[in-house]
Amino acid sequence: MTWPDNVVSGSLDLLACRDQRWTARDALELLPENNGPRIEVVRGCVVVTPGGCIDRRAAQLQLAYRMRVAARAAGQWVYRSVNLVSGDDLFIPDVVALRKPAGGRRSVEVTTALLLGEITGFGVIDRPREYAAAGVPYFLRVDLRNRVPTIALFELVDGDYRPLAAAAAGTPFVMRQPFEFTVDPGDLLGEEAPEQAG
């Protein structure tokens, strides 16, 4: 493939000048690694989402760390912001629990995922539907609305996610599958909510 003279492979400028369908493989081979926006591929289209707010990033960090400790005790591995390949699609869930370690790899296949977790705020992709279609056994949703975190766990049953457990800040969220994990959702922000200006 040829690019305009001012665009080189490995540059985000490719997003503006490519005139053909994207695949997960294309994105992983042609685009640079970055710590900024989330760049995913869904049905041939690139979806770019800016980095989240401070609360979202704090919750992602806390959730991944705490889940990682619990998962290791069960012989499973938890990571955050993993390149997850599902056919030609590329997703980057906030938290991923895998059946085997993924260290040293740039991406993993969706078939290795036990649980995918998302922190709400991104409405472009219907993630539960996509993850259910890929056969991921568990989906975890964290909602940070009004700085009152809630967590809900869903299990894949007959092609759809069904609720298993849920809790709001101040009440323990208890998960038994795919590994045991307990947390007060309020602890995910790691600080007290700021006082409202009156």
TrEMBL record:
Annotated InterPro entries: Nuclease_put_TT1808, Restrct_endonuc-II-like, Uma2
Keywords attached to this entry: Endonuclease, Hydrolase, Nuclease
Superkingdom to which the source organism belongs: Bacteria
Pfam families assigned: Uma2 (PF05685)
Molecular function via GO: endonuclease activity
Keyword Lyase carried by entry: no
Database matches in SUPFAM superfamilies: Restriction endonuclease-like
Domain Putative restriction endonuclease: 28-171
Protein name (database record): Uma2 family endonuclease
Lineage of producing organism: Bacteria, Bacillati, Actinomycetota, Actinomycetes, Micromonosporales
